[in-house]
Design a protein that fits this description.
Number of strands: 6
Largest sheet: 6 strands, mixed
Oligomer: single chain
Shape: globular
Strand content: 5-15%
Order of helices and strands: HHHHHHHHHHHEEEHEHEEHHHHHHHHHH
Length: about 525
């Protein structure tokens, strides 16, 4: 209290002692300073938001910290700074720059003492990180309408014809003539796409009904295009999700019954432990840190589990390595030197304590290289995840296999994650693909050219769309010819550009044609027209 009174007294003495003529000038200077501060704060805030939208949190942090002294407790400013810190910390951890990450985490904790950092993507590659490219997810095209004859509400002969077709289609629908109704809806959409919005639910139901009939009528292999037809219907009418998912499940079951060999090649978990090829496992003494050791030709498994669990993990590791090498590179490569160290942490708490990655991630891999030579291979998984051995371990092993497959080139992110997810059980793959229609509707998908050329993971807000689109695109291209041809395309794309490689290997003239063909595969014509409106 005495200190406050003293300061007030001193201020009073200064005011009384000075001439009255200085007051307007002083007030003017204060006002100028206030305006300058406000402009500096708003400019920094605007620039920071732009940097975050373009997946450049480092620049956002720089802009915001530069003007911290001016903000006077601005809540919006501090909220954006918290977001920038979180994103930058994730970026640093992805680059294995843990010391710097801890420095910014301490700053974040000052702003938010209870901060829970968002999970980082599952794979951590310890090679030098390239600067993230400033790309945004694809945005809807904007069409400028400036002339009277371009009025979208203007009725013409085409619109009238389309409306008549829609009325006729709905009439057939009420009669349960779903095949006829579907054809009429399609004709109406081709005549006038603007009318398609009002009949998507009807049209989608017709498509699903036709798929159901074909599944009931035809035995043996699933007819071509049925799965795609279901996905088209789901994109058109998300409210029919339950029916669509049941049909997708039936299609997958039918495929499993008629093509068991192909199904087992999709995921390691389709093979039971008894069916896995025999792997010679040597059990060693415990390490000073308390790890038990189980060693194979290419892996050293550090664990705190039983020998049986360690041996099963070793079998899955060796089997996944061999199968992924043969599937994507057409041959089993030489023995790994150095071997891949695999740590099976007992719990998520152990995992986060011993690695720079939070327990919310089920596992990650670390690869370090010198030129084309891999000098560190390492996998971390925590065993309290239900599918640790059946999904996470094959996924991370695939990352390690891919890391040495493209010479001195770093594996593109979309390839790395797309191929790795395809190693998981089919139901987990379907979870990613199931989200594609939603991401399409929310305009969160990337342009295919943008996705293929992406050097780093996108902003965390778009990790879900990134994974789903990567899985779908890898599956599409590897089914066009063979998985081995797909990896050849990736390698040629890295060396000499993707568009020449697209033309030579797949016959696509450019990215635009690839995007069109992939969209038809993933969604069908109707869903693509939705995206382009």
């Amino acid at each position: 209290m005495a200190r406050i009174g003293l300061l007030s007294l001193c201020a009073g003495v200064v005011i009384v002692a000075g001439p009255l003529t200085w007051l307007p000038h002083s007030l003017g200077e204060d006002r100028n300073d206030a305006v300058a501060n406000a402009l500096a704060v708003q400019t920094a805030l605007t620039h920071a938001k732009s940097h975050l939208e373009h997946a450049n949190p480092k620049a956002a942090v720089y802009e915001l910290e530069k003007e911290l002294a001016r903000i006077n407790g601005n809540r919006e400013y501090l909220a954006v700074l918290r977001e920038a810190y979180r994103a930058h910390i994730r970026e640093l951890r992805l680059a294995n720059q843990e010391e710097q990450a801890q420095q910014y985490q301490r700053r974040l904790l000052i702003l938010d003492p209870g901060a829970n950092l968002d999970p980082v993507p599952k794979t951590v590659v310890a090679a030098p990180a390239a600067k993230p490219i400033a790309r945004e997810p694809a945005k809807p095209a904007v069409t400028a309408r400036a002339q009277a004859d371009d009025d979208p509400f203007q009725d013409d002969g085409h619109t009238k014809q389309a409306r008549q077709l829609v009325d006729k289609a709905k009439e057939e629908f009420t009669k349960r003539h779903y095949g006829v109704a579907s054809q009429l809806f399609e004709q109406a959409c081709q005549t006038d796409k603007n009318l398609a919005d009002g009949c998507r639910d009807y049209w989608a139901y017709c498509k699903l009904h036709q798929v159901t009939e074909r599944l009931n009528e035809e035995n043996g292999p699933v007819p071509q295009g049925l799965e795609q037809e279901v996905r088209v219907a789901l994109a058109m009418a998300p409210r029919l999700e339950k029916i669509a998912n049941e049909l997708l499940k039936k299609i997958e079951e039918r495929r499993g019954q008629t093509n068991g060999a192909a199904a087992s090649a999709t995921a390691v978990t389709a093979v039971t432990p008894q069916q896995l090829p025999h792997v010679q496992v040597t059990h060693g003494a415990k390490t000073p840190e308390g790890w038990s050791l189980a060693e194979t030709t290419n892996f050293r498994v550090f664990h705190t589990q039983s020998q049986e669990v360690a041996e099963r993990a070793a079998q899955i590791l060796e089997h996944t390595r061999t199968r992924m090498q043969q599937k994507w590179f057409a041959q089993a490569g030489p023995k790994w030197n150095p071997k891949c160290d695999v740590f099976l942490h007992a719990t998520g708490e152990d995992y986060s304590r011993n690695t720079p990655v939070p327990a919310s991630s089920p596992g990650h891999s670390e690869i370090k290289s010198e030129g084309s030579r891999i000098i560190v291979r390492r996998i971390h998984v925590h065993m309290d995840v239900p599918d640790a051995l059946t999904a996470v371990l094959p996924h991370e092993t695939t990352h390690v296999v891919l890391a040495g497959g493209f010479g001195t080139y770093q594996v593109p992110r979309w390839v790395d994650e797309g191929v790795a997810v395809l190693t998981e059980p089919r139901e987990k793959i379907e979870k990613h693909l199931h989200n594609l229609p939603h991401f399409l509707q929310e305009r969160q998908l990337f342009g295919v050219k943008q996705l293929v050329q992406m050097e780093e993971y996108p902003d965390p807000r778009y990790i879900g769309p990134f994974y789903a689109q990567s899985v779908s695109l890898v599956e599409f291209l590897s089914r066009q010819k063979t998985p081995e041809v797909f990896t050849q395309f990736v390698y040629e794309g890295l060396r000499g550009g993707y568009e020449p490689a697209l033309k030579r290997i797949y016959g696509f003239k450019d990215f635009s044609e690839l995007e069109q063909r992939w969209e038809q595969y993933a969604f069908g014509t109707a869903a693509v027209s939705t995206n382009s409106q």
